[in-house]
Specification:
- By secondary structure, the protein is α/β, with parallel strands linked by helices.
- It has two domains: 194 residues, 3-Layer(aba) Sandwich (Rossmann fold), CATH 3.40.50.720; 216 residues, 3-Layer(aba) Sandwich (Rossmann fold), CATH 3.40.50.720.
- The protein is 37% helix and 13% strand.
- It has 13 helices and 13 strands.
- Strand 5, helix 5 and strand 6 form a beta-alpha-beta unit.
- Helix 10 crosses helix 11.
- The protein is globular.
- The mean pLDDT is 94.
């Protein structure tokens, strides 16, 4: 039996595969603790940024990358033969849905097929990608053992779900408790040592399946509650009740209530996607997760509700959507970040365009739309300037994301019609009928 390497900053090398919103903070966290870290990615642009000591993610300062690079602790490469020089390898690759809302593990399996041939005895291999219960056993363990390694003896396999919240100033990577499950007791011991070297608190669980399902539960909880408040928003709108005032009132209860807030739809790589990983897996056991699927249907329908409210508001002004100039404020899926993954603004761009509107967007965090898997038609589209002239020229301004950088008094002064999906204009003086909540 091989002993897992002793995880020590002075001697251990940590490899992180996938240098996106999860992988890059992890790289920097281990480098900050004094570990030598190798970041692996097939995207040469990311490698070039890290070699230059610059960040390609807006909420991660370049100074942090430059410090890690300058200390000699950070390297980045697309040469996967260097996996063998790492004592631990952490996989942080996407797990999207396909066109049928079923799990797409192609990034995980392709990464494993690239990594496994370079493994050596004594290494720790951790999967962080959000996925359905059983993935680590079915995809990671089987491949490692097919390569001739006994898991728990030669290679130590763990699952530890990522819990990044981009742009949240309260929580960086290392002060969020880290759930870890191992294939065997020896694997769990190795994984606990790996993450305990960088994270303030490690939460060991009895299996990789428990760890996998814990991440799904976290995001299903949010999806279901957001679906509930989105449904209540529609009902409240029809009753002439301000749902935001209702939430404020209910939030004064000191127990038994957690506020969730409505919006134009779900975004990000987690909440719109993760619940369907469980619904897909549950069908294998004859379980129909009706509650989860209903919440998903409600949340996916919200962009269309915003479109309908916009059409009604324009009709009240004697205008059709076709030919109208519509400015969308905010492309990122959440406030104050540049993360546009699964953003509902893309659905608004698509739908307004299909209806014949002249649609543009403004987002200081996303000056140009880069390549995406689902919205290639918008790649290269640039954010327009938010000026008095731009606002006055728009027949309608739709606030899809509430960035702190938005000059809301400027909107109030120059936009004739504002569709507010985030209650952003609540604290700004506006004219009667100028703002329509959606």
């Amino acid at each position: 039996m091989s002993e897992p390497v002793c995880i020590q900053p002075q001697s251990s090398v940590i490899g992180v595969v996938g240098l996106g919103y999860v992988g890059l903070p992890l790289v920097l966290a281990y480098a900050d603790k004094g570990f030598a870290v190798i970041g692996f990615d097939i995207d040469s642009t990311k490698i070039e940024h890290l070699h230059a000591g610059t960040s390609y993610i807006k909420h991660i300062p370049s100074a942090q990358v430059a410090a890690a690079r300058g200390s000699g602790k950070l390297d980045a490469t697309s040469d996967f033969s260097r996996i063998g020089s790492c004592d631990a390898i952490i996989l942080c690759v996407p797990t999207p849905l396909d066109e049928h809302l079923e799990p797409d593990l192609s990034f995980v399996t392709a990464t494993l097929d690239t990594v496994v041939p370079h493994l050596r005895a004594g290494q720790i291999l951790s999967l962080e990608s959000t996925t359905y219960p059983g993935t680590t056993e079915e995809e990671v363990v089987t491949r490692v053992e097919a390569a001739g390694f006994k898991v728990g003896d030669a290679i130590f396999v763990v699952y530890s779900p990522e819990r990044e919240d981009p742009g949240n100033p309260q929580f960086a990577a290392t002060n969020i408790p880290k759930v870890v499950g191992g294939h065997t007791a020896a694997c769990l011991q190795a994984g606990t040592a790996l993450y305990g070297a960088a994270f303030e608190r490690v939460v060991p669980v009895s299996s990789t399946q428990v760890a996998e399902l814990s991440k799904l539960l976290e995001n299903i909880y949010r999806s279901v509650n957001i679906g509930l408040i989105n449904e209540l928003k529609i009902a409240a709108d029809r009753m002439g009740i301000d749902i935001w005032e209702v939430i404020r009132a209910a939030s004064t209860k000191p127990f038994g209530f957690t506020p969730f807030y409505p919006g134009p739809g779900l975004g990000g790589h987690c909440i719109p996607i993760d619940p369907f990983y469980l619904t897909w897996k549950a069908r294998e056991f004859g379980v129909h997760t009706r509650f989860i699927e209903l919440a998903g249907e409600i949340n996916r329908a919200m962009p269309e509700y915003v479109v309908q409210r916009t059409m009604e508001a324009l009709n009240c002004r004697g205008k059709a959507v076709k030919g109208s100039r519509i400015l969308l404020m905010g492309l990122a899926y959440k406030a104050n970040v540049d993360d546009m993954r699964e953003s509902p603004t893309f659905a608004l761009l698509d739908r307004f365009s299909e209806l014949g509107a002249e649609v543009t967007y403004h987002d200081p965090h996303v000056p140009v739309i880069g390549p995406t898997r689902e919205h290639q038609n918008w790649a290269g589209t640039c954010s327009v300037a938010c000026t008095p002239a731009t606002l006055a020229a728009a027949d309608c301004v739709v606030i899809a994301t509430h960035h702190a950088a938005f000059d809301l008094p400027l909107l109030a002064a120059h936009a004739g019609l504002i569709i507010d999906t985030r209650n952003a204009m609540a604290s700004v003086a506006t004219q009667p009928g100028q703002v329509v909540k959606a």
